[in-house]
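Hey, can you fold this?
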Amino acid sequence: MKLKPVKQGERVRLRDSEAARPAGLPDDDELKARLDKMEKRLNELQVALYAEEKRSLLVVFQARDAGGKDGAVKRVFGPLNPQGSYVQSFKAPSAHELAHDYLWRVHHFVPQKGYI
């Protein structure tokens, strides 16, 4: 689907075809069934990760404000056991943080083995 740019002063109608569900995407029931299956698998993997205690998992979401980070974290990690995971949010980087690589400030929050 080709996106149409919005011109200054033009009214945007979210009911337009450009805002419709993309062609070929499964229906809501199918998506829910797939998500339920993935949530079950994520739970199994979290238990295995914790039991093994050899690795950890660091997930970094980066987007602008209102980019959907909080919703993604809630949807993907919400069903997991909260005792095995930790979420750290960051505000705008300081001048000191900007002087380092973009992952420098997350190094302190790398989870211990067995945790997400």
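Oh, and this one too while you're at it.
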Amino acid sequence: MRKSIIFLFCVLLLSLSLLACNSDSGNKIAIIDLAKIQASSALQKVTTHIDAYRNSHMETVKAAENAFRKKSTDETRQAYSQAMKEFEQTVGEEEQRIFTALSDGIDKILARYREQNNIQVILIKDAALSFDPSLDITEAIAAQLDTIELGLEQTPQENTQTDTPTDTPTDTQTDTQTDTQE
């Protein structure tokens, strides 16, 4: 309890000192709501992609599991174990690749916004005890999230199959159709 009070007191002092800096010297502070950022359409696309990627790679694991259930031998157990290991590694690498690109992209967006708007500090909403709503830049940042290049164009099926589906137009076909319509 004592540590909590000390922590809240420190946060209060930090907030007050930052607000004092903001009003006296022309320094600017901005606030961002991470919950709203996480709910943005750009991050929903990331979640959808990872879920689809996970599901597309789960087929191999399910096949190995079914084989093991039908005939429980050392060979089928090892095949199942190997399939799970490869699944976890493959999905983990994809998640790491996307989250690294996302984190780097958000850092660049925040840095650019901060520089363009002469902001010295961007705080997370949860770190501020109270603030003027005009300091909230969440919507401006969320609007820029779609500009982050995450490599989501490559569908999970492209990662596991070498054939392109025949009923889906390729980028070249889509571009040609768009050019023709213009």
